[in-house]
Design a protein that fits this description.
Radius of gyration: 18 Å
Number of helices: 11
Number of domains: 2
Number of strands: 4
CATH class of the largest domain: Mainly Alpha
Distance between the termini: 26 Å
Shape: globular
Strand content: 5-15%
Length: 270
Amino acid sequence: MSSTLNDVLKALATDIEETARLVEGLDETTWNAETPAPGWSIADQIAHLTFIFHLAGTAASDPEGFAKLAAGAAGDFDGAVNAALKQFNQFPPAQLLARFRALGQQSVDALAAVPEDQVVPWLVNPLPPTVLASAGIMEIFGHGQDIADALGVRREPTERLRHLVLFAFLTKDFGYLSRGLTPPAEPFRIEVTAPNGEIWAYGPEDAAQKVAGPAEDFCLLVTRRRHRDDLALVATGEEADRWLDIAQAYRGPAGEGRTPGQFAHQNCEH
């Protein structure tokens, strides 16, 4: 089930606006409240997303400008992220939020202008605009979850999660690569239940390695915003079970993740 660039960008634009509304009207103290990501405040989360959208918008509209930005990040991506946090964090809440919205929309518009059969330069390899937009959805889902957790609110899962589920299926090797492990050649099947009860399935039907459960739980797993013990996911096969421990839909270090039981009370409805 493939998505058009327009489908993914509409979902991304909606996610950006939903996240903006989460933080709209927060006072300065709450903006600086800690999130479950150690050392990251709500302001840091919005600043990071603003930086990511700035990068993506530049990559799609100004490849030369992007090359300069990326060159600064190439040797030390964490350093570049931290520098960007300082750059965007200097703005008071209303101004940071305005930049988040503007640069988010700019990235959507810039990606929309790229023909679907072309690629956009990115940090490791050039990516088709649909894949880069899906990576944006992954970023905003994960960082938006940290913000929602800090504010004690629950975001309603929607059919837009399908783009993240497919992206996580396509990037299922990242968890192995980030740990220096060789990804298995054996095929996986991901079979998750959408919020509307539909089944989204990727990978061969007869695959011995399979992961099943609610789509939202799957997305929380691959963004490492919940520990597998707090999710209603079922692995069939030894390798699929191992994957639940290391799954991540982003490149680079896995980060600390979350601990078992940290959010257990929130999943009693599953």
